[in-house]
Amino acid sequence: MSKIDWSPLCELIGAHQKVLLSCHVRPDADALGSELALAGFLRQLGKEVRIINPSVQPKGMDFLVGEHEVRHVGDGVATEDFEWAEIHIILDTSAWSQLPGLANFYRKTKSRKVIIDHHVSSDSLGADEFKDVTSPATGCLIFDLGQALNCKLTPEIATFLYAAIATDTGWFRFPSTTAYTMQIISELIRAGAEPHRIYENLYEQNNLPQLKLMGRVLGKVQSDFDGLLAYTIVTCEDFSATGTTPVDTEGLVNYCLTLAGTQAAFIAVEQRSRQVKVSFRCRTDWDVSKIAESFGGGGHRQASGAMLNGPLSSAVTKVLGKFREMFETSENSRV
Predict the structure, then answer these.
(1) pTM score of the predicted model
(2) Looking at the predicted structure, is the pLDDT value of residue 335 above 50?
(3) Are 57 and 32 in contact (CB under 8 A)?
(4) What kind and span of H or E run contains 29?
(5) How many angstroms separate the CA atoms of 67 and 202, rounded?
């Protein structure tokens, strides 16, 4: 059970009719699944619900969206679409940097603002926060909220929440996974979630260009700091040569962490803008969220990200410097 007292939010939802849901840019399965599940719960209560995000979801998430309307900034969204809402709930982030474009609309409206999140990194968004940084996924929080609202778990909502929780726990291998996490998963399967189909839709839909990109990226993996760190890079040339885009690098950083003895990993992905998106991963003894925050990003202790200015070589040098500080600080603390 989460540490959150949901009664104030239940009262707020009960007193209003129009609810707008948003999540972070480039939504992952936890963000998108949590949104869609909460939308389902709210509609059971007779609420009017709209979903507007900072950007379109990756194609791999389209199976979750299905026939549901999920709009994004730049898709003809106007101020009126945000002014419509009495409550605006932001899910799976509490950082301004994760709300590009959408933040401008968010600041202009008088709707009651709510945050539901489990990330450590946080800004003051002027909202009522319902946050539990010990929760393995925002999907777990939405499951608890659904229970507090006395809503029903339908097969569709169960699928949304299973995808959210399974992905953010690394399919239950991350240390954030608890016995309660698995109790939730049991309830979701009982309600109709089909793990094999969800996994197939998320991870077994690669095309040939994506596999070729994977080969190029894994061929560049390097090890540093006596094997404690593994990392790789992706250039715009890699995308051109394989017919892929930055979205197709999702999850590749995790392969770096499979190298025996490795305690941390990162992937640096060159964007068309020549900025560099860096995704960080680490094992339980470390905290890469601090590295991400030093570059204006954020996330979890074991999984975080940030956007750095290019060129790529300069960004990688800066990141390596931060890892050196992290490892040296840890070594000194043990002396």
Answers:
(1) 0.83
(2) no
(3) yes
(4) helix 29-44
(5) 18
* Helix/strand/coil percentages in the chain, nearest 5: 45, 20, 40
Burial 67-78 (b: 16+ CB within 10 A, else e): eeebebbeeebe
For residues 199 and 192, what is the distance between their CA atoms, to the nearest angstrom? Answer: 15
Both tokens of residue 27? 């939504």
Whether the CB-CB separation of 37 and 111 falls below 8 Å is answered with no
Contact 60, 69 (CB under 8 A): no
| Tokens found for residue 59 | 């194609």
Pairing of strands 298-299, 48-53: unpaired
**Domains of the chain, earliest start first:** 7-203 (3.90.1640.10), 208-334 (3.10.310.30)
Token output for 271 = 């964007």
In the sheet with 87-91, reading across from the earlier edge strand, the strands are 71-72, 48-53, 18-22, 87-91, 112-117, 128-131
Q: What is the pLDDT of residues 170-217, one digit of tens each?
A: 899 888 899 999 999 999 999 999 999 999 999 888 899 999 999 999
